[in-house]
Design a protein that fits this description.
The chain is α/β, with parallel strands linked by helices. About 30% of the residues lie in helices and about 25% in strands. It is elongated. The two termini are about 30 Å apart.
């Protein structure tokens, strides 16, 4: 039997009350496995400590990936929900409990029609989205290499309950992280010429790196550089031996991402040269941008219309989402990341963030129908 609203709410409130941090989602994994197994849904062997991949259908048609995340955040919940977090300091403040519930609902609904599905689905319950590592880890297991496309879900407090946010093209940013250490030569503050001071070089970098966005790339292509942490020295009369800064760069396309990285390296190296310090650049490439396929966006609007669900144009964000790992590994695959309006008065990652569970059935119906439409179309 597909899940009723009461069933969905039950699951949602249980997951919400028992939040777990990334890569530690053992109870959530168990709940997902039990729910799927009790409905005879095939679970694929996943070589990760947490996370679940379910497989439904025997059709020869396309294999559709449906992906959700399941981890919570290190936040002390401050709502007065009857099903609020029972775990001190941990909270589902991004709606991943909602995502997991929706995909369980979709799994059970598709299971009902398993024998008549023209293709297959793989439902991915991915760990550790908040750490930006789970999508990478799961996609690299190779377990979903056979999927021809991927559908992703995220709650969105900006829309009224149940409205689907859809937009073509890049919608979320590639997230790269950098750390630069500048090695100089420490000396007495009174004798700067006897050492090499890394501090003016660091200060110059803070301002000159802003030209990545303002001077070096197309102003119509978003580039963000936030330097969030700097350290040098530990007292007032000593010029330090070295200093560091770190931060993040966000871009929306692979081309701009590559361009910005090379400008970044050149600015750091040339500035260091000018100030006679030795740079060490650590560059951590995070998840790529989420880029929605136009044909899937058109299909999503048609499916939403057929179910009587409202749609709206989703706004872009320079936040990141490792859903993109499934769109880019092991090859480029079309996909769509759909936002679901879940109301509430507080933003994501806020201790009073809530999602309205009334949006669950619409989201289940949408992804169920969308998966079937994708199997028929591709
Ligand atoms: Ni999230």
């Amino acid at each position: 039997m597909p899940l009723s609203y009461d069933d969905l709410f039950q699951i949602f409130s249980r997951i919400h009350a028992c939040p777990e941090l990334g890569m530690q989602e053992t109870k959530t994994t168990l709940l997902i496995r039990d729910t799927l197994a009790s409905h005879d849904i095939t679970l694929l062997p996943l070589p990760l400590a947490t996370g679940v991949v379910a497989s439904i259908g025997h059709g020869k048609g396309p294999v559709i990936g449906l992906r959700c995340d399941m981890d919570a955040l290190p936040i002390e919940e401050a709502t007065d929900l009857p099903y609020r977090s029972q775990v001190p300091g941990i909270m589902h403040a991004c709606g991943h409990d909602f995502h997991t519930t929706v995909m369980l609902g979709v799994a059970l609904a598709l299971k009902e029609e398993e024998d008549s599905l023209p293709g297959q689905v793989r439902i991915v319950f991915q760990p550790a989205e908040e750490l930006a590592t789970g999508g990478y880890a799961l996609s690299r297991t190779g377990i979903v290499d056979d999927c021809t496309m991927f559908l992703g879900i995220h709650t969105y407090p900006g829309f009224t309950n149940g409205t689907l946010g859809i937009k073509e093209g890049p919608v979320m940013a590639a997230v790269d992280r950098f750390r630069v250490t500048l090695r100089g030569r420490g000396t007495h503050a009174a004798h700067p010429h006897k050492g090499i001071d890394p501090v003016p070089a660091l200060a110059t970098l803070v301002t000159s790196l802003q030209t990545l966005a303002s001077r070096l790339t197309d102003p119509f292509a978003p580039v963000l550089c936030s330097i969030t942490h700097m350290e040098a020295g530990n007292t007032w009369n000593v010029i330090p031996e070295s200093g560091m800064l770190e931060g993040t760069i966000r871009t929306m396309t692979p081309q701009v991402r590559a361009e910005v990285e090379s400008h970044f390296r050149r600015i750091v190296e040339d500035t260091s040269h000018a100030f006679r310090v030795e740079p060490v650049i650590e560059w951590h490439a995070g998840p790529p941008a989420v880029i929605n396929d136009p044909a899937l966006c058109a299909l999503a609007r048609t499916v939403a219309d057929s179910l009587g669900l409202q749609t709206a144009l989703q706004e872009d964000t320079l936040g990141g989402e490792d859903f993109s790992e499934f769109l880019t590994y092991p090859r480029l695959r079309p996909g769509i990341f759909v936002r679901i309006g879940t109301g509430g008065d507080y933003p994501q990652h806020h201790p009073r963030f809530t999602v309205d569970p009334q949006a669950l059935p619409g989201a289940v119906a949408f992804f169920t129908q969308m998966a079937k439409a994708c199997m028929q179309k591709a």
